[in-house]
Amino acid sequence: MGFDAIKLAKETEKVVCSGKDRKYYRFRAARFYGGIATADCVGCNLRCIFCWSYNMVRNADMVGRFYSAKDVADKLVEIAKRHGLNKLRISGNEPTICREHLIRVLEELSEQRDKLLFILETNGILLGADESYAAELGRFDFLHVRVSLKGDSEKRFEQITGADGRFFNYQLKALENLVKYGVSCHASVILAEDVDGLRKRLEKIDKSLGDVEVEGLILYPDVRKRLKRAGLL
Ligand code: SF4
Fold it and tell me: Please, what CATH class does the domain formed by 5-229 belong to?
């Protein structure tokens, strides 16, 4: 049986959230989405076997430093302006941990944005656990949420993330909640065994969710080793 992803989120919060501030380890312009200003946060409630920021996830107490929501919003806007970009995101680890901070960043951006799009990349667990979180995100019309599904079944999810398989359903619930509150969103999936089956399942939640993005996996040498050890290669 895997670990409790909600309990781990609460424990991680104690390390990476301080009042309305949150830990980050990097700010940059990234090439994804045709160019996007990116703030890389610290701390996650999953332990994905392929995680490309494994070090930050495992050593959240040792890396990064605290930034206020205003600092983060200002830095994102400044990077976007400097590189001529119109998209922003918080990435790296899991942005929905430190809820007050994330909402404050979005509020700051809504005051100063100039036709900017904020893409929230999330594992969705906390949005599935608490409907009011998705409802709160519904206040921001410049937001798009990408829920990154870890596999396409409870069993696969547990193999990939180490968390109990029942939390896969929290990921699906996140999408349901986001649709319910009119938040623009889509699902991506990694290491799926049956994409068509998943698509049908998502369409049952809402027709619009059938357009699933299939994520590729970058096989860095240590990622390959971890996947092989877990029998996922
Ligand atoms: S959800 Fe993302 S940041 Fe968290 S462990 Fe998985 S890949 Fe890493």
Answer: alpha beta
